[in-house]
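Subject line: Sequence and fold of a protein, written as structure tokens
Body of memo: The sequence and its backbone structure tokens, given next.
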Amino acid sequence: MPSPAGAAICHGMEAPPTGIPIALEPLVTRVLAPNASAYTYTGTQTHIVGTTDLAIIDPGPANDAHHAALLAIVDGRPVRAIVITHHHRDHSPGAPRLAQELGAPIVGAAPFALEDDGPRSDASFDHDYAPDRVLAEGETLTGDGWTLEAIATPGHTSNHLAFALPETKALFSGDHVMGWATSVVSPPDGDMTAYMASLEKLIGRDDRIYYPGHGEAIEKPQRLVRGLLGHRKQREGQIRRLLAAGTGAIPAMVEKMYVGVDPRLYPAAERSVLAHLLDLERRGLVHRDGETWA
């Protein structure tokens, strides 16, 4: 899911064809799901890794047409695993049907378990997500000529994983880094402190290209990740200046920070601002009194 500013640019665009396999490189094929929206851009991109045996990364929503397209691409080849980056409804619900029909395990992100009494941000969560195997940092899946290594990248969600393909130095970045907008970080499951740390972690890697869940491939990933870090620091600076000027309520901050953005996207923007404030609070830079921050 993108930030509200990013989501706004999707309105009025025509999505590219769905269900068509596009070879990104010899080991990677991409197919677009028919779920374009203000929060998914042109739709969720499923990536298929391998040639003689396969892994399917993020099968997308439970959609008959997308399911049929994936089966056609598999074309009887063995599928080693259905791999999930995180538990949002545009990424994981297509997994159980594929797993049953292909005899493949669901592998990747941990199951979702949010235990809190605060505001819930789980409207977009796949509550039926139940992996057969959870991958921890550095654990791998292997096939004929390919390896997928789990890279823990929490922040957008608490269980988010990226997957490195060391044979070609590619990274499947899920929603942590996208090719069209920044991700929403929505507490309590989303965590800005973790998100920033995960971006810093990627800066320390030497991946050649990112294949995101939404948007085009990212051919200069280090430059983009540095830009994402800079963008978040700019947002933090805006928030601190507004607080210093006496604007302490999140809705009032959003109105001043997201000028020109569709007001229907304000709730998502408020979650992002809250994530920044919680990060600042952990660092001892702000405090709150009820719904007001200072």
About this structure: The chain is about 30% helix and 20% strand. Residues 180 and 215 are 5 Å apart (CA to CA). Confidence is low (pLDDT under 50) at residues 4-13.
